[in-house]
Design goal:
two-stranded antiparallel sheet, 8 helices, eight-stranded parallel beta barrel
């Protein structure tokens, strides 16, 4: 039987958090500290995190903590400690990219729900099996998938008691699901460490044999994802969560 999927909204500020709650979000995802894929302007302190989780639960909503970057060895314990702290006061899940962190959390905090981030590129049945084996209870499917692919992978995941989540709004990366090295190559800012410089959004000239072939423009930037006109088709796939991108966006 088809059920209405969760509506998952972003929050990078208290104002955005409250706007998401007031607008009917079933769940909100946010970050705390430095081990997630947004900068300093979209972070909550641990005390703010505790307060907002309590507020969301009183309103019947869930809160997911982002730990969605690739970690260095010396950061692993910090990430586990933050996840443990968040779990103690009731955060509903952690969104994780690093497979080593997934393994640690499954071993040390098995009660904590872990969602495989979209940067995990879990767009195949084999990937879903692999992330389930790492203890993930939900997989955020790649943004590049077609409706029928979402339907098939969701059915496969549900057979294994794994939930699926898809983006219905947000940017499309020139690389697959944000696994881009362009920003780091051009300016030393790693997209997989939460510091993307949006290099693909800049304007470039296209040359042929050293001569301008096309005028200057943002030729590497795909159009943003907007599933508003096909929401009924997306919901018919059976996905468990519809995700809105934008922890840096304004509350409105």
């Amino acid at each position: 039987m088809h059920t209405t999927p969760e509506l998952l909204a972003p929050a990078g500020s208290r104002e955005s958090f409250l706007a998401a709650l007031d607008s009917g979000a079933d769940a909100i995802y946010l970050g705390s500290g430095r081990l997630n894929a947004r900068g300093d302007k979209a972070q909550f302190t641990q005390e703010e995190l505790r307060e907002l989780v309590d507020l969301a639960h009183k309103r019947g909503a869930k809160v997911y903590l982002t730990l969605n970057i690739l970690l260095h060895d010396e950061e692993l314990e910090e990430a586990v400690a933050l996840a443990s702290f968040a779990h103690e006061f009731g955060v509903d899940a952690c969104i994780v990219q690093d497979r080593g962190l997934m393994r640690c959390l499954a071993r040390r905090i098995p009660e904590l729900a872990v969602h495989a981030s979209t940067q995990c590129t879990a767009g195949t049945e084999e990937a879903i099996v692999a992330y389930a084996a790492l203890g993930c209870r939900r997989v955020v499917l790649p943004r590049e998938l077609a409706i029928e692919e979402i339907r098939e992978l969701t059915a496969f995941a549900h057979e294994r008691k794994i939930e699926t989540e898809v983006f219905i709004h947000g940017a499309l990366c020139v690389s697959v699901s944000g696994q881009c090295h362009m920003s780091h190559f051009m300016g030393g800012r790693s997209a997989n460490r939460g510091d993307c410089a949006q290099s693909c959004r800049m304007s470039y000239r296209i040359l042929r044999n050293g001569e301008a072939f096309r005028g200057e423009g943002p030729w590497l930037s795909p159009k943003d994802l907007g599933a508003f006109t096909i929401l009924n088709k997306v919901m018919e796939t059976g996905v468990d969560s519809l995700k809105i991108e934008g922890r840096l966006r304004r509350p409105d």
